[in-house]
Model the fold of this input.
Amino acid sequence: MTYAVKEIYLTLQGEGNHTGRAAVFMRFAGCNLWTGREQDRATAVCQFCDTDFIGIDGPGGGKFKSADALADAVAAQWPQGGGGVPYVICTGGEPLLQLDSPLIDAFHARGFEVGIETNGTLAAPDGIDWICVSPKAAAPLVQTSGNELKLVFPQKEIEAHPSRFEGLCFEHFYLQPLDVIGEPAQTAAHVASAAAYCLAHPLWRLSTQTHKMNGLP
Ligand code: SF4
Done:
């Protein structure tokens, strides 16, 4: 299997349950809910994406011809001698278009915990240590269990209302205010409405994108 990777970099997880934890982000190229091209956004299933996942031209990106080659590239980003458990977050795009058992095994062989951030439209293979599902619009949800459900809020589709997910098998439920780039007033309104929802429905916790506030990638 050849893996197409947009970028690989070390940062601090900015969102959800592992906020503040050092992690190697490994961003796969491609998504099944949007092409990534602006001219296709209006007709995409997922229309609020703020991520560039096209191509393999980011820092550390490229085509990797084997699971070992990709796992070596990820491991090279982890600081040596600093303690802590090495952690890789497989994201995208949609990571489950490419993440497979040989790659999970290759990460584990190098001492890494493996996390994913997925839109939940594909089933996750066994062996992933932390599954974060972020349902998008009316896209059908296939991966209905995991560690963390992180819902961008609000979304206009009734299928993406928080109440639709409360009975699913997750340990943590997060609402993440929809960030409208260049529209701080709209973003602030979304923070307020997400906070109000969490106050009225304590199953849900507020997840803010701390990496953006702190100037991290
Ligand atoms: S599912 Fe995720 S990666 Fe794909 S278009 Fe939506 S936000 Fe972007």
Q: What stands out?
A: The CA atoms of residues 131 and 156 lie 25 Å apart. The domain at 3-213 is CATH 3.20.20.70 (TIM Barrel).
